Amino acid sequence: xxxxxxxxxxxxxPVGQMALTWYLLQTAIGIWLFYGLVPGGAHLMGKIGxxxxxxxxxxxxxxxxxxxxxxxxRFRFGPAEWLWRTLTHWQVQP
Length: 94
Fold this sequence. Notes:
By secondary structure, this protein is mainly alpha-helical. It contains four helices and no strands. α1 packs across α3.
């Protein structure tokens, strides 16, 4: 693998290891941000343009990468992945 690709893979690997956790969190944040179905929701659906949407996406993904790296340094799985494996194997995972 060429060095540039390897750097990208190493950068994104923790996000992939926590894919279920991030999917669930992105869904909850999106519902809060755009639909405001929970208290304090932002209700941004139809109120912001593509520029702000791109800013939210890029900024959110950058934060997600940083948090994933911090989490994976300390834990083996993301919280949702840990729960999924615990329920699948009927044994508490380390």
